[in-house]
Design brief:
This protein has about 170 residues and is mainly alpha-helical. Helix content is about 50%, strand content about 10%.
């Protein structure tokens, strides 16, 4: 069956449908837990709760009917706990149903929010130490199997690897 036969098949069944048109319906049928609505909430977090609240709290996830928000410090958690009813009302209104009935604030630690934004700014890249003059002179005098000798050789390899990477970059 050539290309011509395929055209006739498409016409018989109503023609080809664009993926973008059929994907939302398919995903809606597959998403029984409402996860897609939560993805929309995470992406539009600042618009849902407002920029002031979004700056202090970011979504971390959910635990049952509890919304878990990341905060930078305990003072922010205390302040935002007073606004928990308003946050819940806005979130549930956005989701068009009552999904959450509690808000739990967690201190940031090393947790990354679901929207991928972090409040901390990146600092300058770490400074690579320069190879000390005369480095390697003790390698012959230290025993190879002693702890100090193994540590010294590892230290030498650190600078050798850095030198090789720098040489590759200049090529």
């Amino acid at each position: 069956m050539g290309f011509k036969g395929r055209r006739q098949t498409f016409r018989r069944f109503g023609g080809a449908t664009r993926v973008g048109e059929s994907l939302p319906g398919l995903l809606g049928r597959l998403d029984r837990k409402g996860s897609l609505a939560l993805v929309r909430l995470w992406r539009g977090w600042a618009e849902v709760v407002g920029p002031e609240v979004a700056q202090l709290a970011r979504p971390l996830g959910r635990r049952g009917s509890t919304l878990i928000l990341r905060v930078d410090d305990a003072l922010a958690a205390q302040e935002l706990s007073l606004f928990a009813p308003q946050i819940l009302a806005r979130v549930n209104e956005f989701l068009a149903e009552e999904v959450f009935d509690k808000v739990h604030f967690e201190l940031i630690g090393s947790k990354v929010p679901l929207d991928g934004h972090t409040q901390a700014e990146e600092g300058p890249p770490p400074v690579r130490p320069k190879r000390p003059a005369g480095l390697g002179g003790l390698a012959r005098t230290l025993k190879r199997d002693s702890p100090v000798g193994r540590c010294y050789r590892a230290y030498l390899r650190l600078f050798d690897a850095a030198g090789k990477r720098a040489a590759r970059r200049t090529r």
